[in-house]
Amino acid sequence: xxxxxxxxxxxxxxxxxxxxxxxxxxxxxxxxxxxxxxxxxxxxxxxxxxxxxxxxxxxxxxxxxxxxxxxxxxxxxxxxxxxxxxxxxxxxxxxxxxxxxxxxxxxxxxxxxxxxxxxxxxxxxxxxxxxxxxxxxxxxxxxxxxxxxxxxxxxxxxxxxxx
Length: 163
Known about the structure:
Layout: H1 18-28, E1 32-35, E2 43-47, E3 59-66, E4 71-78, E5 89-95, E6 98-104, H2 109-124, E7 128-132, E8 138-141, H3 145-161
Antiparallel strand pairs: 1-2, 2-3, 3-4, 5-6, 5-7, 7-8
Helix pairs in contact: 2-3
């Protein structure tokens, strides 16, 4: 059995295997709400522990399992925070003497994979993150331990599913 990815590598890897799907279904899917859109053969998994707060910005990574085509994707969903920017979402990060940003510009599966992977990699490196709201305020983002942990858990499960 191949070893799962330990960290984001930047490769666009969406293929699933029978063993990885069985592991996810039997061991990890109990931690998720599963839904399916009408006329779709894709299962959507959202972490049950995800915060329901709308007073602060949060992003939820969703695992989309296209089991008919042996593929899985990661999609990012905004919570109900009313001041998320309507255009490109820019996540600012800071660590020691370095700063930078991750920009979410597109809804394509590749762009969402890259964006979620960059955030996950930043979490592993201990980056402090913030977003610019539509009002122009800088708001701390993924600063709570549980929010960071939840994001990381979904990304690890996704990487194991697409090993």
